[in-house]
Structures are given as C-alpha cells and as structure tokens.
Amino acid sequence: MKHTIIAPSILAADFANLQRDIEMVNNSEADWFHLDVMDGVFVPNISFGMPVIKSIAAHAKKTLDVHLMIIDPDRYIKTFADLGTNILTVHYEACTHLHRSLQAIKAEGMQAGVALNPHTNVSLLEDTINDIDLVCMMSVNPGFGGQSFIENTYKKVKQLRKIIEANGAATKIEIDGGVTNKNAKQLVEAGADVLVAGSYVFGASNPIQIIKDLRKLTTI
Ligand code: DX5
Ligand code: ZN
Fold first, then answer.
1. Which residues surround the ion ligand 2 when the cut-off is CB under 5 Å?
2. Mean pLDDT, the chain, whole residue set
3. Which of 6, 42, 100, 175 has the most CB atoms within 10 Å of its CB?
4. Considering every ligand atom, which ligand is closest to the CA of 66?
C-alpha cells in the first residue's frame, strides 16, 4: 500500500487564528506543513516571511515544507535553514544555477526541492533529477490559493515519473494547486507522492475530516 503525503497549505489558514490552525494540522492525519513564501516579484502576490515562519515553527510538530516563490532564492537558503525548514523548494524559473542552489540547500542540512511552473517541461530536470529530493509540480500558476486545477498536470506527472525511474532516483513528486477529492486519487495513480491542499482543507467546515478523507482516497 502506498502512503501519500498530505501537506495542508498554510496560505489558506486564518492568519488571525494561526496557532489554532497549526494545532489542527498537528492533530490531523496530515504529514507536512506546506508554507508558501511569495515576494511580489516572481509572483504577483506577497504572502508571509521569516517572522511568521518562526512563529509557525514554534508550534508545528510536523515536517516544514517551504515553497519559495521568490527571485534569487540563494540569498535566503541559510535563513530558512535556521528557521527550522526541513524541505526547501526553489523555482526552476528563478534559478540561473540550479545545481549550485540544490547543493547549497543540502549543505545546510535540508532536503532540496525544485518547483516547476505549469509551462515548464519536466524534461528540463533530466540532468539534475538525482540531486532533487522533491519536485513541486505546480498545477496552477503560482501566486494564489483557490485556483482551478490544470488538467495537463496528469500528463506531466507521468512523464516525470518515467524520468525518475529511468535514472533510479528517489525523488518525490508533489502536486501543488487546486487539489481536491475530485483529482487526488487520479494524481496518485499517475505517480504523485505528495498532495498540497490549501483552500480545500481550510475552507471546509471540518478540515480534520477532509484530511482524513484525502488520506483514505489516496491510500492505494
Ligand atoms: C500557490 C501555492 C499553493 C497554494 C495552494 O501559489 O504555491 O501552495 O497555497 O492552494 P490551493 O490548494 O487553494 O490551490
Ligand atoms: Zn505552494
């Protein structure tokens, strides 16, 4: 049986009740906290930064999966390591020297992730796949929660799974954006290992139950 990792995205939490929402994730069947950092330059939105992540880290009892949607992410690798990040993901489109960025993330003791925008072909990772712990495949254009899932993602997941297998890599595939009970199972069947869910979880009246349902749906 395959255990799919469920990662609620804190972007959709109630920031005035952040500790309550963090405790909810702690007490749920979710595996990771997905934290979206946006700079208003790489993406047309600004989310939250270091002080907020520091407060989240003080209460979170699960893996911190930080998704940087910022230009020139190398400048902040050490800062995010010091904040307690377990997995640090940079965007392919924001890195001039991706291989160097991956090495720098690992040198700080974190797992290294690469995020791909919907238009970025997975074949561009063929030469670095063995250095990547996680590919965060964007299934919406990055910048906002609550957008509709892009159907072309299934094809990309299958293509990436082939590249991972052909290279004997241990890379996990994470899907980020528009994940709901309508696409979760099909994504896992296509080869996804991690599902990020923001508005679907935090917009529900019973998020604990929604996480439980996602877990059930994706244990195949
Ligand atoms: C989008 C972010 C996502 C977002 C997902 O730029 O990277 O992590 O929070 O939110 P939903 O699940 O609402 O699409
Ligand atoms: Zn994200």
1. 36, 67, 176
2. 98
3. 175
4. 2
